Amino acid sequence: MFTVYPSIIPRIAPCFVDDMFTVLHEGVGDGDELINSTLVLFGICTVSDHSSRLLDLANKKDSLGVLHPAAAHVSEEEGQGTLTLTFDLPQSPLLVTNPVLLLAFESPLTQGDLDVAFTSPSLQPNTQMVCISGETQYILLTGKSPEGSANQKWQISAETKIPAMKQNLKDILIGGKSGSNISMTPLLLFSRERGTDTRCVLGSSPASLQTSFLCELKRFLGAALPQKHLISPPLPLDSLQSLPPLTLGLSSSETLLAAIINSTAPTIFAFTSWGSIFPVCHGELALSPALLEELRQRLEQTLVQMTYIIREENVAQGAKKSLGRLKDLSALQKDEHDTGGSQFRAFLLLKALQTVAQMYDVQRKLRATRANPSSSEMRHVCGLRALTVSLTKLLVGPPSANINSCHGSCAFPLANANNHAIMLNSHIESGNVDVRAPCCVPVAYDPLEVMDWNAEEMFISIKPDVIARECGCR
């Protein structure tokens, strides 16, 4: 008898594939050889096992495509130590060369060291060994080219030679519980031939440049932003009131684009198409020469500011390298006509850098306030206090926002009070206690800008009155 576990394929986060290729590319050391940590990451037992195929993938990202199996499930033969993985391959003319089956996990495996033999007529060679450790996050299996273009199934048995380790193998593939969904994401990597559809695939096409830029932006924001450990549940952005969304593209007005470039409001970058392997495949702007020059100058100034922040603040090491890649992907050339795509990427980079710089400016002001000898006295007076909240995870970033809060006493003399608060306070001090006392509340706000992409377009949503800018007694 066989026990068959569900065939629900986990959703993968935006940039999951691009992140994997970035790690793989950075894992190539001197002499064009893979470093040991990369071999462990991909479950490769010895240098000779799959290392040449993995190195080939690292060097040929520009000619690779990705397909998602139509369905996947795991079955277990009772009384045996074998699990069988079944993958329904999509009908596609793209699978013309030996594909690579990648079993990807969202985090490194922690079930302990485990040697696993994967066997199938669909693999080349038929049996392939994988060495799993606590730092392994991907399992790489080399397949044969499918025969014909019809839908096919790959059935791959997974077996460990140590019976006591069978439960560990189940933990890896299905979470260890009967009836659980599979815990890995299967992906088919293949070489693209000339003339194939290049939409939403890896490489140097305009579409993939946009995807690579946004995924690099996500990595940069993760590395550059001040690290905060928030215990509050993430706030869904769609729960906020919003002005009607405005499309950002070739038809956008100069007035709108100029206003966004000059805006000081923090910007959040989101993906609506959450389950997509390649979450965005479009984005162009057509700026006038004057506005393009303004964008170029502002970007140069903000890059200098960001470089200083990275040098002086406690910023993660990967931020500098990631910023360099973003500069290359969004370069605006003075001696030639800039493409709409490069304008689009430069525009997004400016807004991202402005947001990061603003967050560090808040931290700097907080440090200055704490260092001020009179700050202990002022702490009790109504005023702004930093308040960081966690945002929904369906983001490029940032994953949090400082919305500020108002806190402190509204005793006489009242801070930033209006006439009503003054009269109210006087009434209470005269001995009347039947009304509420003036409270410290926000009296002015800044908006939050959210740039989002769905399957068709990019748009910006203005969320008004999100960030407290000024406090007063009311």
TrEMBL record:
Gene3D superfamilies tied to this protein: Cystine-knot cytokines (2.10.90.10)
Protein location: Secreted
CC terms in the record's Gene Ontology section? extracellular region
Short name of any one Pfam family annotated for the protein? AMH_N
InterPro entries to which the protein is assigned, alphabetical: AMH_N (IPR006799), Cystine-knot_cytokine (IPR029034), Muellerian-inhibiting_factor (IPR021203), TGF-b_C (IPR001839)
Give yes or no: UniProt keyword RNA-binding.
no
PANTHER family, sorted: MUELLERIAN-INHIBITING FACTOR
GO MF entry, a single one: growth factor activity
Q: Where is the TGF-beta family profile domain?
A: 364-474
State the family it belongs to.
Answer: Belongs to the TGF-beta family.
Signal peptide annotation:
none
Question: What is the name attached to this protein's record?
Answer: Anti-Mullerian hormone
Might you name a Gene Ontology BP term for this protein?
cell differentiation
Keyword check for Secreted, yes or no.
Answer: yes
UniProt keywords (A-Z) are: Differentiation, Growth factor, Secreted, Signal
